[in-house]
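Contributing new complexes? Match this layout with heme C.
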Amino acid sequence: MMTTMKISRIFPALIATALLCFGLTTQAHAAKWDEKMSPDEVETLLDKKFAEGKYSSQGADSCLACHRRSEKVMDLFKGVHGAIESSKSPMAGLQCEACHGPQGTHNRGGREPMIAFGPDSSLSAEKQNSVCMSCHQDDNRMTWNNSHHDNADVSCASCHSVHTANDPILDKKTENEVCTSCHTKAKADMHKRSSHPLKWDQMTCSDCHNPHGSLSDSDLIKPTINETCYSCHAEKRGPKLWEHAPVTENCVSCHSPHGSVHDGMLKTRAPQLCQQCHASDGHASNAYLGNTGMGSNVNDNAFTGGRSCLNCHNQIHGSNHPSGKLLQR
Ligand code: HEC
Ligand code: HEC
Ligand code: HEC
Ligand code: HEC
Ligand code: HEC
Ligand code: HEC
Ligand code: HEC
Ligand code: HEC
Ligand code: HEC
Ligand code: HEC
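Output block (do not edit by hand):
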């Protein structure tokens, strides 16, 4: 099957994009590919290849003459990018060279390098990503530029694998693992006693985050933290007759979204949680002083003992009861 694959003569907008991305340097360079080249030298060579547009006449067949023994390379054909029946697939156009750039003399004496992807590539993330973006510049990646990942030079290929039947980051059962291979703090948090069911893979990071960027601070799926939480915890959304200001403002003033050692994913336990803001309010203030050496121990105190703020003020997220002003009913 593979040997009958022929490169189509449709040269899509891709080439134009690629030319723009890689510039038009024509400087010749006689480096051998097995020599250690600096990233600059690699880029210069790639620029030259793009300028000359030296695509192979055989497309994938040319590449597979040497690369077909690699199982990893061949697994491309199990995924969408190797789909030969799709008119949008790289296989309908420049085939392997749609991503790896023109062959040039990669297969001969000149031994020019190809565009390589992922963390070991000597090409900048931006240049690698421009290849992917030449086909994937759509609504879903509208805010990629200047997203946290773009700014930190994370490449598309450090999350995505394309030479595979199943890209692990697109699978709900393995997504969290890929994300937390870099985000070790989130990994530690999600295994804490009280947490979202991330560790059971019943929820994924992308339930709350858009890894391709968004208009919110932490690349959340919604413009604000609260809107993100309401997408599942709709019952916490107001308006309520009596609102508790921090709840309508920001859920994470009390909760750790990735997990916590305290029940209810709270940042800290009541009464300390409440006293961050209420230490000098009315009875709470007295109770607090009791704890600071006026003869009373926090655990003995009617107001501060254990979870006692919540024993009385149990409608902590707001109340619809006519006399619920103090969040007691
Ligand atoms: C004449 C044999 C031959 C042909 C034809 C060939 N390659 Fe290669 N390619 C190699 C060898 C050898 C290496 C180096 C392997 C290594 O370093 O482990 C290589 C390396 C690569 C790499 C890895 C580069 C890197 O820096 O990690 C890519 C990507 C690649 N080839 C793509 C292609 C594509 C796409 C084509 C077709 C346009 C192609 N090759 C055609 C022999 C060939
Ligand atoms: C020549 C065009 C082209 C290029 C270049 C390209 N893709 Fe794609 N990609 C496609 C097509 C076509 C699909 C099929 C889905 C669709 O119709 O959008 C696809 C689908 C995907 C998907 C979804 C896969 C799935 O199984 O649903 C991911 C992820 C992806 N591409 C990542 C990448 C990455 C990363 C790169 C760069 C290394 C890249 N693509 C380069 C054309 C391209
Ligand atoms: C931080 C990890 C990460 C990076 C970096 C990343 N992606 Fe994704 N991508 C994901 C996850 C997770 C999904 C599935 C969930 C979703 O769609 O939000 C996905 C889905 C996709 C899809 C299929 C669904 C869709 O949105 O169309 C495509 C195509 C895609 N990514 C392309 C890219 C391209 C192109 C880049 C580089 C510009 C890139 N991704 C960078 C994690 C990432
Ligand atoms: C959609 C873009 C895309 C297409 C099309 C594509 N590749 Fe790749 N290739 C990649 C990415 C991204 C990687 C990095 C590893 C990965 O993501 O799976 C890679 C890795 C490689 C490597 C290095 C493998 C290794 O062992 O590290 C070789 C060699 C290679 N590709 C050859 C080919 C050949 C030959 C074809 C055509 C049959 C091809 N590629 C088509 C994007 C592509
Ligand atoms: C290859 C490593 C890598 C992978 C994989 C990765 N990230 Fe990141 N991520 C980073 C880097 C680097 C930054 C920027 C530095 C930082 O803020 O930690 C970042 C930033 C972020 C931020 C913004 C942090 C802030 O400061 O507000 C979020 C949210 C995020 N990543 C979520 C994800 C999600 C969700 C996934 C999986 C879909 C993922 N990341 C996969 C490396 C990675
Ligand atoms: C329930 C929603 C939710 C889920 C699921 C989630 N996050 Fe977050 N994440 C948030 C919110 C909200 C923030 C902002 C926190 C803040 O501003 O204090 C955030 C912040 C971050 C940050 C910025 C640094 C930090 O810790 O504040 C990173 C990185 C991050 N998340 C990565 C991840 C990763 C990786 C996963 C999957 C293991 C994940 N998140 C799952 C809601 C979520
Ligand atoms: C994708 C859906 C989803 C989103 C978005 C979401 N949650 Fe959750 N949340 C859940 C699920 C599922 C549970 C577990 C319910 C259970 O175990 O009964 C949960 C449980 C909780 C709990 C109770 C934990 C416990 O131990 O009792 C808190 C607190 C919480 N979420 C806060 C938040 C906050 C804050 C946000 C926004 C940053 C948020 N959630 C966003 C789905 C979501
Ligand atoms: C002022 C602090 C505070 C803020 C702000 C806050 N919560 Fe809570 N939340 C709590 C406390 C305290 C508990 C534990 C209640 C208990 O144990 O009776 C809790 C429990 C929860 C629970 C699990 C029990 C239940 O009531 O369903 C969820 C879910 C939850 N909060 C979601 C949210 C969401 C969503 C937001 C933002 C809209 C938010 N919280 C804002 C203090 C807060
Ligand atoms: C992030 C700061 C913050 C935290 C934490 C916080 N609150 Fe509040 N709380 C406020 C603000 C602001 C108001 C509104 C005060 C006002 O309107 O005068 C308020 C109002 C109240 C009211 C109603 C008072 C009135 O006069 O209407 C009660 C009762 C209350 N909080 C109890 C608690 C309890 C119990 C906790 C701990 C579970 C807690 N709060 C945690 C900021 C906070
Ligand atoms: C035994 C029940 C009870 C406990 C426990 C309790 N409260 Fe109250 N709280 C009340 C009552 C009743 C009022 C209204 C009367 C008053 O002001 O004393 C009130 C009023 C408030 C008010 C309104 C402003 C004010 O000071 O009058 C705030 C804020 C408040 N409590 C916070 C807290 C915090 C924080 C805790 C835990 C440290 C706490 N409460 C523990 C019963 C309780």
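Reviewers usually confirm one structural detail per submission. For this one: Residues 39-52 form the longest helix (14 residues).
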